[in-house]
Amino acid sequence: MSIRINATVHEARAAAGHNKEQWDRFYFITKDEAKQLSEAHTDWTRWILIPANEKDTMLGRINGRLVAEGIPAVEMIILKWRMSQLLRDIQRKYANNIECLAEGSMLQGIGGRERENTGSPTLSPSPWDVKSEPQSPPPSDQSPIETRPRYDPIRDV
Description:
mainly alpha, about 160 residues, 5 helices
């Protein structure tokens, strides 16, 4: 069996021989494995960077869990397809969270509100632990126009 690395979910599922419920469990199991992998080896950000023996061990663990649930085992090409997506998604999420943390630290003290500054932001060891929720400023008695500094032609150019 062979699939393209940019195969659709339908193509990959058909190649694995899974029904919808089995495929959902495969997705959950591989996500769990990717989470553990990214926490244990932060430098393994792409499939090609993972040593071959670790890939084989991971495939064995995943297939062991699948077979224990009566789900057909997958071949390495299916695992490569799925893990490549997961590792890319983890990197995107991690990059977005770092960006949000950096923007948040740059905004400290702006607008006349004093915030407690405990030093530089602490980064979570895993992108899975960081929650990226929009934060709104606390309500103010003044409108945004009243709190905004006057226009300065030198500064604001």
